[in-house]
Design brief:
Structural class: mainly beta
Largest sheet: 5 strands, antiparallel
Oligomer: single chain
Strand content: over 45%
Number of helices: 2
């Protein structure tokens, strides 16, 4: 009885060249990612941040993609365009936010900021986390030769997770220094609300501890849930692969 043997087809000269090129490309990609070089897609940067923290892949519930700063270098009339990306992922009892600030098109690393949240520590039925939302980027031309200047303006954002079934609209009220600010939000495809407060500018850390009231409405306008609490602070803020 003859034994079954499987033989790979013989490659010609062109086939061998193509095989070697593919193997080299794969090896270079692995080395590129291992040494914190910029990856080609922002989603890959998000997943790499998870792996660096030894976290399993989470479910992405929100991806914010906004225009970044325009950088004018000495002797150039056209700016270098950049973009900001922010991912929010939810896992088993935790949430992770990864912000890619000033991400250029290719071959230059963004500033990567990671925050983690222990959702099981929050008492409310609906879990909330904060995020910084880009409001305005001002373009500057710097006359000095040493480089460039960027300015940023951020506003506070709050994301509501684990919404009750049937929620179609949310309303959030925040109190600061005796003033009351209110905004509303729809529900995205992943079932979360993003509330933005453009009038509350500055580093999002200023908002920690501010009292809030959250109301969630159903299709018929009935209140499904009303929850009060204080805006929580993340458990950790980590910078990964920071490149100036």
């Amino acid at each position: 009885m003859k034994k079954f043997q499987f033989h790979l087809p013989r490659l010609g000269r062109r086939g061998k060249i193509l095989r070697n090129l593919l193997a080299t490309l794969l090896l270079l990609t692995l080395i590129w990612g291992q040494f914190l070089c910029p990856l080609f897609w922002p989603e890959w940067e998000f997943r790499r941040a998870e792996r660096r923290l030894l976290l399993p892949p989470s479910e992405v519930v929100l991806h914010l993609d906004s225009p970044g700063g325009r950088i004018y270098r000495e002797g150039q009339s056209r700016p270098i365009l950049r973009r900001d990306h922010q991912f929010i992922g939810v896992g088993d009892g935790y949430a992770i936010t990864v912000a890619l600030k000033d991400r250029p098109p290719l071959f230059s690393a963004p500033h990567v900021y990671v925050e983690t949240w222990d959702l099981s520590a929050q008492e409310g039925k609906v879990k909330v986390i904060t995020t910084s939302i880009a409001n305005l980027y001002a373009d500057w031309r710097r006359e000095a030769e040493e480089g460039f200047l960027r300015t940023y303006r951020f506003s506070m954002g709050l994301v509501a997770l684990d919404l009750p079934a049937g929620t179609v609209q949310g309303e959030l009220t925040v109190e600061e220094d005796g003033k009351t600010y209110q905004t509303d939000s729809g529900v995205n495809d992943a079932g979360v609300c993003l509330f933005s407060f453009p009038h509350l500018e500055g580093d999002v850390s200023f908002s920690y501890g501010l009292p809030y009231t959250l109301r969630l409405y159903g299709q018929d306008g009935a209140v499904l849930l009303e929850q009060t609490g204080s805006i929580p602070q993340s458990d950790a803020l980590i910078t990964i692969g920071f490149r100036s």
